[in-house]
Amino acid sequence: MPHEEIKSDLEAAAERLSQAVAVFQREVSEAISAAQEEVGDYLLVDYDPAPESLLSTLPSPRIQLRWEHADDGGCICHYELVFPLEKADVRNDAGAGHCVVALNRGHKSSSYKAETDGSIKVPWRDGVHAKLDARHLGNPPIFAIDPSGRHERVEE
Hints:
Layout: H1 2-40, E1 45-46, E2 62-69, E3 75-84, E4 98-102, E5 107-109, H2 124-136, E6 142-145, E7 151-153
């Protein structure tokens, strides 16, 4: 009988442990998913950029200040460095041919309106940083891109 009691106790303990492990795995999985969602906002390098980031008519490398409509009805300006990837480059697995590096998290605005002269709005701070950064990067061109894809070169 003592063997049966020990066996029964061990089976009960194994069941409790199995349940605890399942709860732990679920909690870890949920924590990882939540962290991945939060980290997604901080993704700085994109080797498979969205088409709106890659206007084929623009030179590369370049710095761009790209406006897009936000989910809340406003607009956000992405300050980005775009540069080409070689066809055989392992980072070019998606075949986009370019890399987009976010240089900030984006300037938010309640809405997007072109400047009164029709030019594309350039956020003041990002515009200044783009000009300073361009000097350090060999002076690649800087472009402002509105939500429709219309673009213009930002002059010093």
